[in-house]
């Protein structure tokens, strides 16, 4: 069958793809890495895969659904019928995400690292010295040490090429490699944080403990939907699980390769990786059936840490490298929460501490008097710009700050491009500002014809009959179309913030029952990259963190990855993570009669301060 040629214009660059007739256009763009994926799993609902057709032949599955009012088409609703030229929005092709570096070894590198490299000079064999090559090196590094059989085929050549001056690579109690010469300065590992929406990969120097490079990428699983339940549904068969696992591993592998290339490093010098994620992400990474996570009583296949070889899963590291998937706590509280607990050392804190990792699944930990409770709330992806009409990730062209001042709307936009949409921090800013100036009531309803506001004219009924507030009129800031915040967008934020707030209140009530009194929250750690950009005052104004003052909120960055990094560098820390997974008490919100009532109450916004 003749292949069709699809030319894609994205961000001013032209990309040439080949596709078979009948192929879904969205699939072609996803396979080429030119589009992040959809929130609706390709059902033609979310509108995030829209493209402009400049020329050529595309065949709609459903004419009424495929073509949007502005003339663009949904790429998940059209098939390739011939050669074509399409354009996607600037920034939509940039699937790599910026993630911040962090410091792992604030008090020096641990001495109990799982990977050790030992340079040894061996006596060359003679007629009098008949030790085998393997015995010769084991005599130096520990004669009772286990060894990987994979090193045997090349061992004779390596020893003689290097004139018996070699580096032994030791993984705990096992000799996994013998390298020619002194390679002690080449010793690396990876941290992998698999989020529902974004995957973050970090390159670590195991000698110094320094985080050298980091890269974020959109989770390739997003083609199946934006939340864990759609992913679980998509993983219903062994074949589909293999496909999802391969997509995930391939995405991580490509990020690892890019990070190694940045430093001109060789994959065989990467010896260990630690992986964290929510329980569903851990299952899918390992190819494990997650079906029981979706139905009561939400039992995972495993909770304990899983260790496997890099060669078994297909990661670009030394074939004998160890990949540790850290332990989960329960069906909805995963190893990422273990990582946060490790980074914050909750069990050592005085008073009452809370940590919140805001994302598609909002993980909440509460620690007091040596005890730790944890829960997970289905906040949804609104905080990451998803399910929002003009929502987008925090990338080039995203509105991240909003200020309403008299008759002006002041927007903070990421990068130098004109605004194209709004990300999570901008969404919180915008809603808090509308509430502050009286254009939004406590129920979350936009106020039309507000008599005392010069901005009231920006509140209108949109083309679909839904109320909206105009953040920027077309052309006002170089933007192509009106940029709006709709009544539905506000409701999505209410649903998300209510889930987080109700989860916090449930854990607080648990402490109240134990302490026989209302707990005083001493600090709230805000985990995740999102927390670094969140305006704490505005989050408090929306009731996201009930009863907690803004000055008690401490952003701590990607604490899940930091905790995973501690386990990468220290056997003791890894054992601590294993203990934490059994020590933390999970609170299953679906079993709580009070959660729904608290959630409904938390939908409302607090009264603005006078």
Automatic annotation (TrEMBL):
InterPro entries: 2Fe-2S_ferredoxin-like_sf (IPR036010), 2Fe-2S_ferredoxin-type (IPR001041), Beta-grasp_dom_sf (IPR012675), Corrinoid_activation_enz (IPR052911), Raco-like_middle (IPR041414), Raco-like_middle_sf (IPR042259), RACo_C (IPR027980), RACo_linker (IPR040506). It comes from the Bacteria. The lineage of its organism: Bacteria, Pseudomonadati, Thermodesulfobacteriota, Desulfobulbia, Desulfobulbales. It comes from Desulfobulbus oralis. GO terms for molecular function: iron-sulfur cluster binding. Gene3D superfamilies: 3.10.20.30, 3.10.20.880, Domain of unknown function (DUF4445). This is 2Fe-2S ferredoxin-type domain-containing protein. Residues 4-92 form the 2Fe-2S ferredoxin-type domain.
């Amino acid at each position: 069958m003749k292949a069709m040629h699809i030319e894609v214009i994205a961000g001013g660059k032209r990309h040439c793809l080949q596709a078979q007739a009948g192929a879904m256009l969205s699939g072609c763009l996803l396979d080429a890495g030119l589009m992040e994926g959809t929130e609706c799993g390709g059902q033609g609902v979310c509108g995030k895969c829209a493209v402009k057709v400049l020329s050529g032949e595309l065949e709609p599955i459903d004419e009424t659904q495929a073509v949007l009012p502005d003339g663009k088409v949904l790429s998940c609703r059209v098939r390739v019928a011939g050669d074509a030229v399409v354009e996607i929005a600037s920034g939509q092709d940039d699937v790599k995400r910026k993630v911040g570096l962090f410091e792992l070894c604030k008090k020096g590198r641990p001495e109990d690292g799982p990977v050790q490299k030992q340079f040894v000079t061996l006596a060359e064999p003679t007629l009098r010295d008949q030790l085998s090559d393997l015995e010769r090196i084991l005599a130096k590094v520990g004669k009772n040490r286990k060894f990987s059989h994979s090193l045997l085929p090349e061992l004779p050549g390596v020893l003689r090429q290097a004139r018996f001056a070699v580096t032994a690579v030791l993984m705990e109690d096992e000799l996994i490699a013998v390298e020619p010469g002194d390679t002690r300065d080449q010793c690396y590992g990876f941290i992998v944080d698999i989020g529902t929406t974004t995957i973050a990969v970090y390159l670590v120097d195991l000698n110094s403990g320094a985080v050298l490079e980091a890269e974020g990428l959109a989770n390739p699983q997003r083609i199946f939907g934006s939340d864990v339940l759609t992913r679980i549904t998509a993983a219903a068969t062994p074949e589909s699980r293999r496909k999802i696992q391969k997509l995930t591993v391939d995405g991580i592998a490509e990020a690892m390769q890019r990070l190694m290339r940045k430093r001109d490093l060789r994959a065989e010098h990467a010896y260990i990786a630690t992986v964290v994620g929510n329980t569903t992400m851990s299952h899918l990474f390992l190819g494990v059936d997650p079906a029981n996570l979706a139905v009561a009583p939400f039992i995972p296949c495993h909770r304990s840490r899983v260790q496997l070889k890099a060669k078994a899963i297909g990661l670009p590291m030394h074939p004998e490298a160890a990949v540790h998937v850290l332990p989960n706590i329960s069906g909805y509280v995963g190893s990422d929460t273990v990582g946060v607990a490790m980074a914050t050392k909750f069990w050592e804190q005085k008073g009452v501490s809370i940590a919140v990792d805001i994302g598609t699944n909002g993980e909440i930990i509460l620690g007091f008097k040596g005890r730790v409770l944890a829960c997970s709330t289905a906040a949804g992806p609104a905080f990451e710009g998803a399910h929002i009409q003009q929502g987008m990730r925090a990338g080039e062209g995203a509105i991240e700050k909003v200020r309403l001042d008299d008759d002006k709307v002041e927007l903070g936009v990421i990068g130098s491009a004109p605004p194209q949409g709004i990300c999570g921090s901008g969404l919180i800013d915008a809603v808090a500002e509308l509430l502050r100036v009286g254009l939004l009531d406590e129920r979350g309803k936009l106020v039309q014809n507000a008599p005392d506001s010069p901005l009231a004219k920006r509140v209108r009924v949109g083309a679909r009959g839904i109320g909206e507030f105009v953040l920027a009129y077309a052309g006002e800031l170089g933007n192509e179309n009106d940029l709006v915040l709709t009544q539905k967008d506000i409701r999505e934020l209410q649903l998300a913030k209510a889930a987080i707030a109700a989860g916090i209140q449930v854990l607080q009530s648990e402490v109240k029952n134990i302490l026989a009194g209302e707990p005083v929250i001493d600090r709230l750690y805000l985990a995740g990259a999102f927390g670094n950009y969140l305006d704490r005052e505005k989050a408090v104004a929306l009731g996201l963190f009930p009863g907690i003052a803004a000055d008690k909120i401490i952003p701590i960055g990607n604490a899940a990855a930091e905790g995973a990094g501690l386990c990468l560098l220290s056997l003791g820390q890894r054992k601590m993570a294993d203990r934490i997974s059994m020590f933390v008490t999970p609170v299953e919100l679906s079993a709580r009669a009070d959660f729904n009532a608290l959630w409904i109450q938390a939908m409302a916004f607090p009264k603005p301060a006078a």
